[in-house]
């Protein structure tokens, strides 16, 4: 399959255009040229860094697809760390495709939707307002959780020894859950205003403790990396259905 076809299909399925004015990450083909080159083998990873570029090339991949790309808020100079990362791709003739916020909020392939599914929850609607888009999901558990039960379920995601931190300031019967994966600490107030029983995200900030306590809300911090493996793995399954060979590169950060 031509690289341009892979990129066009993903751009369309992930609604990249809707996020263009909001996301600091340029989504789509971020490094490389799509001029007629063929793709037979695609590698997937959470982070686009030197380590995953090397691993993708070693696996024999023709394309690396990630959630966290190499360019944020524009690129003024390709020096230092940026040079090292771009060089890791260019020297291996390995294109990089990125889907950041679209892969957080997508109702089918998104990190939040797939994490909700992992928790045995049915998505009930979008959550996590950012500009004119949303980056998370609200969901209802098929069977209510206790705080300990939800912590234990999330703990099975643990990578690199990162425990699940719980701020248990809410009810012990959890059915209605809001999810924003990764660095979703800024959406605790929206979760409280929505009246959910629990908010699940990756990592927190100091203010989260007080916001959760004052709102009487349970907050679960299950790890940035751990909560954001779902989207790229969903894309891996999609691309495999197109007849391409795929490889998932596990490179946990422990954060």
What does the model show?
The chain is of the alpha/beta class. Helices cover 34% and strands 25% of the residues. It has helices at residues 3-13, 50-58, 80-90, 101-105, 111-118, 147-155, 188-194, 206-215, 224-227, 230-241, and strands at 28-31, 41-47, 63-68, 96-98, 121-130, 133-145, 165-168, 174-179, 198-201, 218-221, 245-248. The chain has a six-stranded mixed sheet, sandwiched between helices. It has a five-stranded mixed sheet with strand order 1-4-3-2-11, sandwiched between helices. The mean pLDDT is 95.
CATH H level, superfamily name of the largest domain: NIF3 (NGG1p interacting factor 3)-like
The poorly predicted ranges are none
Which radius of gyration do the C-alpha atoms yield?
A: 18 Å
Oligomer: single chain
Roughly how many Å apart are the termini? 36 Å
* Global shape: elongated
**CATH top level assignment of the largest domain:** Alpha Beta
The domain count comes to 2
Q: Would you tell me the overall average pLDDT?
A: 95
Largest sheet entry: 6 strands, mixed
At a glance:
The protein has 255 residues and is an alpha/beta fold. Helices cover 34% and strands 25% of the residues.
Spell out the blueprint of helices and strands:
Blueprint: H1 3-13, E1 28-31, E2 41-47, H2 50-58, E3 63-68, H3 80-90, E4 96-98, H4 101-105, H5 111-118, E5 121-130, E6 133-145, H6 147-155, E7 165-168, E8 174-179, H7 188-194, E9 198-201, H8 206-215, E10 218-221, H9 224-227, H10 230-241, E11 245-248
Parallel strand pairs: 2-3, 2-11, 3-4, 8-9, 9-10
Antiparallel strand pairs: 1-4, 5-6, 6-8, 7-10
Helix pairs in contact: 5-10
């Amino acid at each position: 399959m031509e690289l341009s076809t892979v990129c066009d299909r993903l751009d369309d399925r992930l609604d990249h255009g809707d996020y263009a004015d909001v996301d600091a990450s340029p989504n789509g083909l971020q490094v490389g040229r799509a001029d007629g080159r063929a793709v037979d083998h695609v590698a997937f990873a959470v982070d686009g860094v030197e380590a995953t570029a090397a691993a993708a090339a070693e696996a024999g991949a023709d394309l690396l697809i990630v959630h966290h790309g190499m360019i944020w808020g524009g690129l003024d100079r390709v020096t230092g760390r940026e040079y090292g990362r771009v060089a890791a791709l260019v020297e291996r003739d390995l294109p990089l495709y990125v889907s950041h916020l679209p892969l957080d909020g997508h109702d089918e392939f998104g990190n939040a939707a797939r994490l909700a599914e992992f928790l045995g929850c049915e998505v009930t609607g979008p959550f996590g307002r950012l500009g004119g888009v949303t980056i998370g999901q609200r969901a209802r558990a098929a069977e209510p959780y206790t705080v300990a039960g939800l912590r234990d379920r999330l703990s099975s995601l643990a990578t690199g020894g990162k425990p699940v931190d719980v701020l248990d300031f809410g009810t012990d019967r959890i059915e209605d859950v809001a999810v924003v994966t990764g660095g979703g600490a800024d959406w605790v107030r929206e979760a409280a205003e929505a009246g959910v029983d629990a908010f699940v995200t990756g990592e927190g900030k100091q203010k989260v403790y007080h916001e959760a306590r004052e709102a009487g809300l349970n907050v679960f911090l299950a790890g940035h990396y751990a909560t954001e493996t779902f989207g790229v793995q969903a894309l891996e399954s999609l691309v495999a259905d197109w007849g391409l060979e795929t490889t998932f590169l596990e490179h946990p950060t422990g954060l």
